[in-house]
Design goal:
By secondary structure, the chain is of the alpha/beta class. It contains twelve helices and eleven strands.
Length: 317
């Protein structure tokens, strides 16, 4: 089969796919605007968590460990600070287990921080959606910088109790990047990213929880002729681009955050806080007719039913 025929066939498939995509884009649902917010969300604790079938299909053993201690269940931390992650791999680009040096030491140091902080931001993004009160990364970093804490050794030299007092945090999350490596063997490519964390009490230094996760992003191609081999090699080369490393980093962080137990008492406390806040704020907010009727009713002591105190027209008078 000539190269011209192969390219012609590829163009036909591409045009056909674009036509189907264009037609399907017109089938968007017409919303009435009456769909309710704040209903029960399905799979809150499991959405995004890999199952065994996912790991088998993706050839991703996903080495993982997670341990929750009794201290977390007895007295879970409310306000949590995520500290800078230590990079145990370094700032060199590692390909096939061989570190490729950067141009200079400063660039290597920059990439050492970049790799660690990228994973940290993904972890913070997922953690901030939880029921805990997270402290913004920018604030944490500026406080640590003001304290002249610029290295992992500086960070570990300060006790959790002292650091927690300064940051006004109930717990601190320490993290370490254990893997940030790439492999490329033409028909096989892999991105491997690992993270381990521990959450420490700022009251007594005890551990609330700790865990580690390793993500294998594998790409295996099959080639039956030289042209297939060239195409597959190029596809695997492209799968080592930064966007794939970002996806693997996000998955590592997501899997760890999903394993932190949900603290129902924090959710209930937030409900009560909002209700109390609304009682004091409602007077300055626009009130819907239904809400006004509900506000202007009180229990009838004789009948036990709700009696309207005053109507809207009476209140306007």
């Amino acid at each position: 089969m000539s190269l011209r025929k192969i390219l012609s066939g590829f163009m036909v498939v591409l045009v056909f796919t674009l036509m189907i995509t264009g037609c399907s884009s017109n089938n968007r649902r017409r919303t009435t605007g009456d769909d309710q917010f704040f209903l029960d969300e399905e799979g809150v604790a499991d959405h995004g968590k890999k199952k065994a079938i996912d790991r088998i299909y993706q050839i991703d053993p996903g080495d993982k460990e997670f341990e929750v201690f009794d201290t977390f269940y007895k007295n879970p931390p409310k306000r949590v600070a995520i500290l800078p992650f230590d990079n145990l791999v370094g700032g060199n680009y590692i390909l096939n287990e061989v570190p490729i040096p950067r141009f200079n030491k400063d660039e290597e140091s920059d990439w050492n921080w970049t790799y660690a902080n990228r994973v940290r931001r993904f972890f913070f993004g997922h953690f901030s959606a939880r029921e805990f009160q997270d402290i913004e990364l920018m604030y944490v970093d500026k406080v640590l910088n003001a304290l002249n804490i610029k290295t992992p050794n500086d960070l570990n030299a300060m006790t959790p109790q002292e650091l927690g007092r300064i940051l006004d945090a109930d717990a601190l999350i320490y993290g370490e990047i254990t893997d940030f490596k790439n492999s490329y063997y033409t028909l096989y490519a892999q991105i491997r990213i690992g993270l381990q964390i521990k959450c420490v009490s700022t009251e007594d230094g005890s551990i609330f929880f700790r865990g580690k996760h390793l993500r294998y992003d594998n790409d295996i191609r099959v080639a039956t002729n030289p042209l297939d081999y060239l195409i597959a090699s190029f596809q695997n080369y492209m799968s080592l681009r930064d966007v794939y490393a970002a996806r693997a980093s996000e998955e590592v962080a997501r899997e760890l955050v999903l394993r932190i137990p949900i603290v129902e008492s924090f959710i209930e406390a937030e409900d009560l806080r909002v209700k109390e806040m609304m009682k004091t704020k409602m007077t300055s907010l626009p009130v819907t007719p239904q809400a006004e009727v509900e506000q202007n009713t009180e229990p009838d002591p004789d009948s036990g039913s709700l009696t309207t105190l005053k109507t809207v027209s009476e209140s306007n008078e």
